[in-house]
Write a structure and sequence with these properties.
The protein has about 270 residues and is α+β, with helices and mostly antiparallel strands. Among the domains are: about 65-105, LysM domain (Membrane-bound Lytic Murein Transglycosylase D, Chain A, Roll); about 160-270, Glucose Permease (Domain IIA), CATH 2.70.70. The protein is about 10% helix and about 20% strand. The strands form two sheets. Strands 3, 4, 5, 6, 7, 8, 9, 10, 11 and 12 form a ten-stranded antiparallel beta sheet that branches. A two-stranded antiparallel sheet has the order 1-2. The longest helix has 17 residues, at about 20-35.
Length: about 270
Amino acid sequence: MLRAPRPDMTTMPAHPIRRPHVALRIVAIAVMAAVAGCSTTVVRSPAPGARVPPPASTPRPGAFVTVQRGETLYRIATRHGIQVRDLAAWNGLVEPYTIHPGQRLRLYPESRATAVRPTARPRPQARPPATPPRVPAPRPAAPVAAPIDSGIAWRWPADGALLSRFAPSEPTRQGIDLAGRAGDPVRAAADGVVVYSGAGLVGYGELVIIKHDEQWLSAYGHNRSRRVNEGQVVKAGEQIAELGRSGAPRDMLHFEIRYNGKPVDPLLHLPHR
């Protein structure tokens, strides 16, 4: 039977071998002591999910910007250091914040006139009147002021019957809808310059926008085809498109009139028929 040879005790090291984890612990303690001896500043980052307030808008009193083709309200607000909701509120826009080429946007909130308190008049000395004063009968309230006069000779853009009226509280009824058949002529409602001719605005289909002056625009949507190009000068009654149903459930013309970018009721400006 073979036996394993005994180890030679004379060849064993005089000192015991240190285990690796003991050496690592000593190094870690030394590093921690060195770090503790240094003066450091801890910068705490916001906790995940913490809500950081957006920067305040910087209004530009008296400044306006004209919307260019392809621009959105978000892009304009970012370029001028204004929050989108502030820019929309200053211009009376509601979601989804639809804007049109040629539309002017105010880069500052509209100031409100402060009411002036009338000064108190000295009370005259009371004298007993010979006869009781006559109290005049109350007059009826003054009628609401008529809408602003555009100074433009508007005309109907199509011959069809009225399908839908203006409803400012509904985003899809910012103008009127006129009935018609596919291919019926769509005519310019007044003299002007075509500032948009395309199909890039959601909900309008094939769209034409005419600028009549610095404040007034007219828009013609859901056309089957467009007959004018951007920059083209048109006359009132000139055919600019063919009636259709692009972006609509039926053949019709969607017609809008806008004053400083805000939609107004076209029936208040079109002639009676």
